Recover the amino acids of this structure.
């Protein structure tokens, strides 16, 4: 299962950068006893998040899904706002950040990282 983004996907993300803020949806599934490793990663990653202008908007535990196929429940959900895709890419390529990603990788069996863009307000 996928846990970390591949280089080609990161390059595509950068190529699509409109230079505007976006929110990254994080869906996480932990290995047994992986939460402690992820919490350590989160503590260390907070420094980089602040450095590159990111902001944790929400972090919470997954609960029983109301609408989902079997096996689609997630252990945790995070929403992280970044000032731009370029800022996100600078963060994930920072050598110091790259050193701590092993904590995240070993904590997870599966993850979804999905950039989101706000809906435009339409006149009614």
């Amino acid at each position: 299962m996928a846990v970390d983004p591949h280089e080609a996907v990161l390059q595509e993300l950068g190529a699509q950068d409109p230079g505007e803020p976006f929110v990254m949806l994080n869906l996480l599934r932990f290995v047994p006893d992986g939460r402690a490793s992820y919490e350590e990663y989160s503590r260390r990653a907070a420094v980089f998040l602040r450095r590159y202008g990111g902001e944790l908007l929400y972090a919470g535990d997954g609960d029983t899904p109301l609408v989902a196929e079997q096996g689609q429940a997630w252990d945790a959900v995070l929403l992280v706002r970044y000032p731009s895709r370029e800022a996100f890419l600078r963060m994930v390529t920072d050598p110091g950040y790259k050193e701590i990603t092993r904590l995240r990788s070993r904590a997870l069996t599966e993850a979804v990282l999905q950039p989101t863009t706000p809906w435009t307000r339409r006149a009614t």
Summary: The chain has four helices and four strands. The domain at 7-62+74-116 is CATH 3.30.70.100 (Alpha-Beta Plaits).
